[in-house]
Specification:
This protein has 252 residues and is α/β, with parallel strands linked by helices. The chain has 7 helices and 10 strands. The longest helix is centred in the N-terminal third of the chain and has 13 residues. The N and C termini lie far apart (58 Å). The model has no long low-confidence stretch (mean pLDDT 96). The structure holds S-adenosyl-L-homocysteine. S-adenosyl-L-homocysteine binds next to helix 4 and strand 10.
Length: 252
């Protein structure tokens, strides 16, 4: 059995209980070394085979999983954050299906959530934004037509950009072109939930400059939108006058 496990965004105690139990039982752990905190591996049992996938191809990863399976072992494929976001797990799952091997996914705390916690922010503020756009700048991996940051920016929603910290001049230009005002609040969150986490609050107009000044070019999320500002509306859910299925409103 193969388990794709979300490692969480950095802090080793942010993995789920289920994920950690699997790490304890694993006969083989293949982890994404570029971003997974190696402290997570400390719970591995003696004799567990531990491999860093940073230097491996898809074929090598899959053949390692299949080898563990043939030996009757439990294999954990440990991905940073949550595996469903830029995790490249689909191609691995398809290979396993072709080989007739069972697998399961254990979710994790994405850096999307880690960054919000670092910012002490809520992405979905009433009256400000009720949508979160998760995307990236086109880099060596292109984005499909119509999904360019400049197009997504037109919504004015909360935007969280992965894999783009090294491309901030272009990112800033596309965000402005798409219609965010230069003074729209923005923030760069570097290594959310790691001990060396850093938060840089700025505006869309100063994103590139802020990253350059602080030497940030990777392992960071770019967050943009009014959710980082001061104004918002109170929620209906906790409004005394609002009746819900669980609570009767006090005013008529
Ligand atoms: N599956 C992961 C994302 C993998 S893509 C998740 O759910 O978080 C790798 C990108 O994620 C990095 O380039 C960076 O943009 C972002 N990232 C991953 N961990 C991060 C962290 N702790 N803080 C800020 N950004 C992070």
């Amino acid at each position: 059995m193969i388990f794709f496990v979300g490692a969480g965004s950095g802090a080793p105690d942010l993995i789920t209980v289920r994920g950690q139990n699997l790490l304890k039982k694993a006969d083989r752990i293949i982890y994404a070394g570029s971003l997974v905190n190696p402290q997570l591996l400390e719970v591995a049992k003696p004799g567990c085979v531990i491999q860093d996938s940073a230097s491996m191809t898809l074929e090598q990863v899959v053949s390692s999983m299949l080898e563990c399976e043939r030996e009757g072992g439990l294999c954990v494929r440990l991905h940073t954050g949550d595996p469903s976001i830029y995790g490249a797990i689909r191609e691995q799952m398809d290979c396993l299906e072709q080989a007739g091997v069972e697998y399961e996914i254990v979710p994790g705390v994405s850096s999307l959530c880690g960054a919000a916690a670092a910012l002490r922010a809520e992405y979905t503020l009433p009256g400000v934004s009720q949508a979160v756009i998760i995307s990236r700048m086109a880099g060596r991996t292109p984005v499909p037509q119509g999904q360019e940051v400049k197009n997504l920016a037109k919504h004015g929603a909360t935007m969280v950009l992965f894999l783009s910290a090294g491309l901030l001049r272009q990112t800033q230009a596309e965000l402005l072109e798409g219609g965010y005002a230069p003074d729209t609040p923005a923030a760069i969150v570097y290594k959310a939930t790691w001990p060396d986490e850093q938060v840089f609050r700025c505006t869309v107009g100063t994103l590139a400059q802020t990253a350059e000044k602080n030497h940030i070019s990777k392992t960071a999320l770019i967050t943009v939108g009014g959710f980082l500002g001061k104004s918002y509306e109170r929620s209906k859910l906790y409004d005394p006058a609002f009746t819900t299925g669980y609570r009767k409103g006090t005013e008529i």
